[in-house]
Design goal:
With about 325 residues, this protein is of the alpha/beta class. The chain has three domains: about 40 residues, no CATH class; about 180 residues, 3-Layer(aba) Sandwich (Rossmann fold); about 100 residues, no CATH class. A seven-stranded mixed sheet has the order 1-3-2-4-5-6-7, with helices on both faces. Helix 2 packs antiparallel against helix 3, helix 4 packs across helix 13 and helix 5 packs across helix 6.
Length: about 325
């Protein structure tokens, strides 16, 4: 009985480590060599096998979410059919870095994970939002290495430096100029950007919710605020807390990535074909990539919904269009 209890405790401990993504300790328990253990602990990105075993070449997808909300990859992979292997490339982690690396370095790190699974092309590569921007730079680097890419799919890709919305570019320019005058290093300039982006988000959230808040003040004594409205008005999510704690400050990966994207200007246009997916309710996003569209062959698909609703109510048409694109390339 005692042996069974010990075995059960061991399994429970390993499961907890897995759920915490403590890959180094899992590797130690499995008896993996110290070199591989150290490499697993040091890597800031990795690939997750969402669906394997299919006869078709794998599709590598950068989903773009640092914390949660990436579960849409699983129904998306299933909708492609069991014969289509699907690997999700997890976003680059900025934990413990005073200054994030340039986007070119991030893309090169993802390519190491990709080529560890598929050493040679042709490749099927795609990305969503910020992941699409990284996928574009990965394609440029693969082309420079004389590797073939059969599909480069950019789903509502994030803008890069010269095409980024003007207020973000202005904010970075002001911080950089002020930082040079005050002799602030790149790390302090980034700190200021993250802090000011937090303030801007809070101001935008207040302005967005103000009309609904005013309406709620005129409710009669017997009237109730809808649960969703109550949550929106009175419950701020942790990432948008009014007081920015030190922990949440250094975990604001979207703002850190924005800083990286604002510093990225591709030296040349990727010469291969680019397939764009744009949301029908946010078609204005496409203007960010108009210069790329003018310089190379493109294929454009407009999918119902927004960048947010793509992952929920419009996941089926998104998956159908993706499956069609992949089928043509196989």
């Amino acid at each position: 009985m005692s042996n069974e209890l010990e075995l059960s405790e061991t399994r429970r401990a390993l499961l907890e480590k897995y759920l915490r993504k403590d890959r180094l300790q899992i590797a130690m328990a499995a008896g993996i060599s110290p070199h591989i253990k150290a490499e697993a602990a040091e890597r800031r990105e990795h690939a997750v096998a969402v669906q394997t075993g299919g006869a078709k070449r794998p599709f590598f997808f950068l989903h773009g979410h640092w914390k949660g909300n990436a579960f849409y990859c699983f129904p998306l992979a299933r909708a492609l059919g069991s014969d289509q292997s699907f690997y999700a490339l997890e976003p680059y982690r900025f934990d413990g870095l005073q200054v994030p690396p340039p986007l070119e370095t991030i893309a090169a790190a993802h390519l190491e994970s990709l080529r560890a699974i598929q050493p040679e092309g042709p490749y099927l590569l795609g990305g969503f939002c910020n992941g699409a921007l990284v996928a574009y730079e990965m394609a440029r680097q693969l082309h420079a290495a004389e590797q073939t890419i059969d599909l480069l799919l950019l789903m509502d890709p994030m803008a890069f430096s010269s095409t980024y919305p003007i207020h973000y570019r202005a904010l970075r320019a002001i911080i950089s100029r002020f930082g040079r005058l005050m002799r602030l290093g790149p790390d302090k300039q980034l700190d200021w950007y993250v802090l000011l982006r937090h303030v801007v988000r809070q101001g935008y959230s207040c302005l967005r919710d103000l009309p609904r808040l005013k309406d709620s003040k005129h409710l009669g004594a017997g009237e109730q605020i809808e649960p969703e409205l109550r949550r929106d008005l009175f419950a701020l999510p942790q990432r948008d807390a009014l007081v920015l704690t030190q922990e949440s400050f250094y975990q604001d990966f979207p703002s850190i990535f924005e800083w990286v994207a604002l510093g990225y200007t591709p030296p040349s246009v990727y010469p291969g074909k680019v397939t764009f997916f744009w949301p029908s309710e946010e078609l204005w996003h496409s203007r960010w990539w108009s210069k790329v569209a003018e310089a190379t062959e493109v294929e454009v698909h407009v999918i119902p919904g927004t960048q947010v609703t793509w992952k929920t109510e419009y996941l089926h048409p998104l998956a159908e269009c993706l499956r069609t694109c992949l089928s043509r390339c196989q």
